[in-house]
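FORM 12-B: Structure-to-Sequence Request
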């Protein structure tokens, strides 16, 4: 999406980056709600919980990457480890809380 918005459409990079991020959030929410978890009920409540989880993930990512890097792990390995752990945790949190 970033390539389409910036590379092809010529939208200013900061704006294209933000737009592609928001489009990704909306797409992931919709696909997870409809397909992965087959959720029904109040989409607004699901969206609020999803955005809360996204915010928590951002904070945990920043914290854990820094912590692992300070502990001696290269920063890219720290990010990979953090992403792997959070991906698994996110699935269970999403199933039990976001799309319940």
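FORM 12-B RESPONSE
SEQUENCE OUT:
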């Amino acid at each position: 999406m970033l390539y389409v918005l910036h590379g092809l459409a010529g939208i200013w990079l900061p704006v294209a980056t933000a737009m592609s991020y928001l489009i990704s959030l909306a797409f992931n929410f919709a696909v997870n709600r409809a397909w992965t978890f087959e959720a029904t009920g109040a989409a607004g409540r699901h969206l609020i919980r999803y955005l809360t989880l996204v915010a928590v993930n951002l904070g945990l990512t920043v914290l854990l990457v820094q912590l692992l890097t300070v502990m001696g792990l290269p920063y890219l390995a720290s990010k990979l480890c953090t992403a792997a752990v959070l991906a698994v945790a996110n699935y269970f949190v999403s199933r039990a809380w976001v799309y319940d």
